[in-house]
Amino acid sequence: MIKTDEGNLVLVESIDSVDELNAKFYGRFPFPWRPARFDYLVDPYFETVMLNQSVGDWEDRTVPRNLKIWIAGCGTNQAIFTALRFPKATVLGSDLSVESLELCAKTAKELGILNLELREESLNHVSYKNQFDYVICTGVIHHNADPHAALGKLADALKPTGILELMVYNRYHRIITSAFQKAIRILRENTASVDFESELSIVKKLIDKFPIENSVANLLSDYRDSPEPAIADTLMQPVEYSYTVESLEDMAASCGLELVAPCINIFDKATKTFSWNMEFSDPELQDHYDSLPDLRRWQASNLLLFEKSPLLWFYLQHKDCGRERKSERQICEEFLQTKFVRSSTTQRSYVAGDDGTYRLSSNSVSFPPAPSDILLRKVVDSVDAKVSMRDIFQQLEIDSTFQMVNQLRLKLTTIAFPYLRTVEVVENESVDEQEQGIKAKELKEASLQKFKNIKRRAVN
To answer: ∠ at Cα 94 (173, 259), nearest 5°?
Structure first.
């Protein structure tokens, strides 16, 4: 193992030793804690459509409706969220921590989830081959002894045309945390072993009163009232690698994968730091920046935005999947040519009671809510299934620059901002529903006829 100062790698000895370490760590600090509620959408295919749109597929073909999903390193509740988001999917959740899986199973039982299987297994020792349409692995491989080997396992498990959702730590986000984690082990006077209780005691003392005002003090102040799993997950990780766009792309390429598109996540959305595209006051510089290939542009943004750059959270696919990767410019051009309708479904929630048990709430709300941004609301109100997005841009006098088009595409048609769906997909869904209705009627009539043909007989 190559140990550098760019991460917290002091305890890296072997793949199996780090697996054992992580199992103990997340057994002591199951992460994350159970939320106050779990939401789900009545339309069972809503999220699938939005996933396809998020990767630039306006025809809803990249991932199938009844997909097979693997959450590699599911923790306590990511598998629950996924099973609720994709109720027609078959979902497998894997984790090293028995305690995390037990919490996950408890929640699944309370919510009545039937499309989820949980397995205690190491990502480093699975043997899945070409099995899953959609693999989700967020915040996991960077805690392994050899992230490259772990990513290779994810690539093997992915079907030839599947999509991988991957998040690894952004190096410019983790400089302080990696340094702090190593310092804690020095203060404990034993860098070669772990004692989570001693480390937690030291961390809590430093959170309570740090001797100077600096970046570390600012970080610690955010955790003053946090639960132990949150403190441990950030400040006490046993092993932590981090990456840049460039090093992530290199690692992906060596596993036969390529970055397809950024994945807007709840964390970057909350901080409004999800865009990989920068805007400059100098027109010549802007034109040059916009003309760069996606990866080069994202690399430049990663370096220039530094700690303000988004999380390294991307969709990936096999390089040889037979589906040509679309550039963001190409996706934006297709976005302008496409006709849309407003997305609409109903959201319901399972809410934790006073005893901590989840129960289905009687309340429901329309989803998605209207966008708060005035420009987004104008666009949403203008779609009518008859005119293209380009026509709407012209009607509303919106500049069709790459920056503007891409910004509105992301804020209108992705999983994070699911306001619009393509007309073609909605029309196809209507045909499917009609066919299902006809089949259901035929089945009901056949059952009725079978019932009529039953001969009466005396019974005791």
So the answer is: 45
Distances (CA, A) of 405 to 188, 334, 392: 53, 11, 12
How confident is the prediction for the chain on average, in pLDDT? 92
- Mean pLDDT of the region 389-399: 97
Phi and psi torsions of 300, nearest 5°:
-60, -40
- Is-contact 197 145, C-beta < 8 A? no
User: Average pLDDT in the 375-403 region?
Assistant: 96
pLDDT value at 179 more than 60 = yes
Query: Does 442 score more than 60 pLDDT?
Result: no
Give the length of the chain. Answer: 460
Alpha carbons 194 and 181: distance in angstroms, whole number: 12
Cα 72 to Cα 52, 67, 109, 136, 168, distances in angstroms = 21, 16, 21, 6, 13
> pLDDT value at position 427?
73
Start-to-end C-alpha separation, the chain = 77
